[in-house]
Specification:
The chain has 185 residues and is an alpha+beta fold. It is built from six helices and four strands; from the N terminus they run αααβαβαβαβ.
């Protein structure tokens, strides 16, 4: 219930922010606090491994033009708890940024790549990776992204995030992820 309430609130914020940006009113379209603009707080493994977000507050028509020129958010990894496909609250602001970008670029397509750590059978890990990818897809769609822009794939344990020996909890935490892979246009 708490998760559904958060998703609904984020969707409403996205609609409100998108509405402000499209009608020419002045105000930050990226909205939120500094923590939201950097993908949330916390120290879970993998957050920040791709560098800082490249966004800036946008306003009016100049902001719309700037948002058309900027690329997608640079952070593209959503990490999960062991044996879970539930999206952690701290990743909701990052997913909102991806949703906003995708709604502003309806021709852009992404593949959501589900991954797991090596524990479990191959079949189980493939199914868990798919559930994780579908979870991210569902959240992006609830934020207004078209299903036509999103595809999912599961790699299970086959693409570990850490090369070399992958037999420790820190490496496993990095493996439990969905990568948001933007397709070249």
């Amino acid at each position: 219930m708490k998760y559904l309430l958060r998703v609904t609130m984020i969707a409403l914020m996205g609609v409100a922010l998108f509405g402000c940006a499209s009608n020419g009113t002045t105000g930050p379209s990226s909205g939120g606090t500094q923590a939201e603009q950097t993908g949330g707080g916390g120290g879970t493994s993998g957050v920040g491994e791709n560098g800082a977000m490249q966004g800036q507050p946008l306003s009016g028509q100049n902001g719309q033009q700037a948002s058309q020129q900027q690329g997608p958010p640079q952070k593209d990894m959503i990490h999960f708890a062991f044996d879970s496909s539930t999206i952690k609250d701290k990743f909701l602001p990052l997913l909102q940024k991806h949703a906003t970008y995708l709604m502003n670029h309806p021709q852009q397509k992404v593949t959501l790549e589900g991954n797991t750590d090596p524990r479990g059978t191959r079949e189980y890990n493939m199914a868990l990776g798919q559930r994780r990818a579908e979870s991210v897809k569902s959240l992006l769609m609830s934020d207004g992204v078209s299903a036509d822009q999103l595809s999912t794939v599961s790699y299970g344990e086959e693409r570990p995030a850490v090369s070399g020996p992958n037999d420790n909890p820190k490496a496993w935490a990095k493996d439990r992820r969905v990568k948001i892979d933007y397709q070249q246009q």
